[in-house]
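Section 5: illustrative case.
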């Protein structure tokens, strides 16, 4: 139970830092930043990275929102979620992914 609380606090802090970084990037550049999702091949599956103005912003080598460290089973599913995160950042929204988001995009714990 205590471990879950620590994980929730850590995730909240990371989310706040991520949002602050996005806000800084948007504030610093008057022009719309270039935000792109890029597939990442890892040894046991797929992930994605998010780049803002050609700089690494998020490196996601596991399926977010699921327990454990499961990679995406294929490039297509990794990019479905990566593109969703990209679109949220472009819209100024939180890039946080929920289990429901994953299910809507055909990604589950069992792949």
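Designed sequence:
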């Amino acid at each position: 139970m205590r471990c879950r609380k620590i994980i929730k606090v850590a995730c909240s802090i990371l989310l706040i830092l991520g949002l602050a970084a996005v806000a800084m990037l948007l504030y610093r550049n008057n022009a719309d930043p270039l935000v792109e999702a890029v597939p990442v091949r890892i040894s046991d599956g797929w992930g994605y990275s998010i780049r803002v103005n050609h700089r690494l912003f998020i490196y996601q080598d596991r399926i977010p929102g699921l327990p454990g460290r499961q990679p995406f089973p294929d490039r297509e599913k990794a990019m479905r979620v990566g593109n969703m995160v990209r679109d949220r950042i472009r819209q100024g929204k939180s890039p946080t992914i929920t289990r429901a988001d994953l299910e809507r995009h055909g990604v589950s714990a069992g792949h």
